[in-house]
Amino acid sequence: MSINKVALREKRAFRVRKKVSGTAARPRLTVFRSNKNISVQIINDIDGKTLCAVSSLDKEIETVGKNKVEISELVGKKIAEKAIAIGIKSVVFDRNGFLYKGNRIKVLADSARESGLEF
Description:
Nucleotidyltransferase, domain 5; about 35% helix; alpha+beta
């Protein structure tokens, strides 16, 4: 019996979500990565509300002529700008079961940190 990649990622994500939770003072920054796009949300888990979200599909993200890593960097900068604009300076990072090292998740996190978000 083989288990597919999506099921294994969801299993990892669930394991992390048991421990990581966002509050009003320090909401959760969660990332979803598909083969073509990447999206980020800042969530207050206590109220069950999404405070802000950015995706590579948004019109304000210029994706023409850029590769996926560069687009991830733009998304990280944009989510940090939106978060700071609504008064959020510190978040809890949730990579949602995706690998962190050397890929788009790490680039997104680094660019969000450089833009002023703390985690």
